[in-house]
């Protein structure tokens, strides 16, 4: 591999750091500069990536285990999914991200992977919320079901099944879940088309478009929990909503926002600002 350009030197890890090296357990023989780079760059960002994935697993598993998405607000799912789409599109169109991707032709594979971990983190978050959307639709309680659609989700809090008739009146219709799913997909397609158009026709406006996406994501993320709070309060039970997911994501988001801010700097405010705004809720 040839010399690294000055623009890409901040992404290059010390010589000798490779995937095999990172996976090796022989830390005692690790050169000091390599060890510092791993402990301050590669390892924290990798742990954040794993943490994001793990934080959503309780919600996925709870819906699957209960075989019902009862208790989840369709508007919470709508706002969360569209916010994740805008956040992922935001970090993809950021000029800094394009710079990091271009540097992968000059730096080592592990340096490239470490440099793109911020993109992977937002991508995993977006994908995880799309999984929630899919499970929400698949396991949505049908009002036309021959059996009570809320039984499995309520069994933990109401063993005797009392109050099911009242809860049926509070359930959104299946058509609402379908409309939410279609809206999320349509939003993703529209964002993709506009992003490609700006990148091809007006590349100088990518930073402005990224800022718009970041603001859109921040606004959606800042209000996404209100429908869920209202739904939980109205039903007087959490249903299939995962409390562990909320508990993990609250402190984890603070660390994630700090990591993105350190990597993207001031020009990436629209990326890490989204996470900062959602922490407040």
TrEMBL record:
Membrane topology: Multi-pass membrane protein
Protein localization: Membrane
One GO CC term, this protein: membrane
Source species, domain of life: Eukaryota
Residue stretches in coiled coil: none
Region described as Disordered: 149-168
Predominant location category: membrane
Assigned keywords, A-Z: Membrane, Transmembrane, Transmembrane helix
Bias (Polar residues) ranges: 149-165
Annotated SMART domains: CTNS
Record-annotated membrane-spanning stretches: 35-57, 69-93, 113-140, 177-200, 206-226
Protein name: Uncharacterized protein C4C5.03
């Amino acid at each position: 591999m040839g010399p690294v350009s000055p623009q890409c030197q901040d992404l290059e890890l010390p010589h000798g750091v490779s995937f095999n090296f990172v996976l090796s357990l022989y830390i005692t023989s690790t050169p000091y500069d390599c060890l510092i780079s791993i402990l301050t760059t590669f390892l924290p960002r990798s742990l954040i990536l794993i943490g994001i994935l793990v934080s959503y697993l309780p919600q996925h598993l709870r819906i699957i285990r209960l075989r019902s998405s009862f208790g989840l607000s369709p508007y919470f799912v709508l706002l969360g999914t569209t916010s994740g789409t805008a956040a992922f599109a935001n970090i993809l169109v950021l000029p800094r991200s394009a710079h990091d991707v271009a540097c992968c032709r000059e730096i080592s594979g592990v340096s490239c992977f470490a440099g793109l971990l911020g993109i992977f983190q937002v991508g995993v978050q977006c994908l995880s919320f799309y999984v929630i959307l899919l499970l929400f639709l698949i396991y949505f309680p049908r009002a036309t079901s021959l059996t009570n659609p809320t039984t499995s989700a309520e069994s933990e809090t109401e063993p005797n099944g009392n109050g099911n008739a009242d809860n049926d009146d509070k359930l959104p219709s299946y058509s609402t879940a379908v409309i939410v799913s279609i809206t999320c997909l349509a939003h993703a397609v529209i964002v993709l088309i506009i992003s490609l158009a700006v990148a091809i026709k007006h590349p100088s406006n990518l930073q402005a478009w990224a800022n718009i996406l970041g603001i859109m994501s921040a606004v959606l993320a800042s209000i996404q929990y209100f429908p869920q709070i209202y739904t939980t309060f109205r039903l007087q039970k959490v249903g299939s909503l995962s409390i562990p997911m909320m508990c993990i994501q609250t402190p984890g988001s603070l660390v994630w926002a700090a990591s993105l801010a350190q990597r993207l700097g001031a020009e990436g405010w629209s990326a890490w600002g989204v996470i900062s705004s959602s922490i407040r809720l």
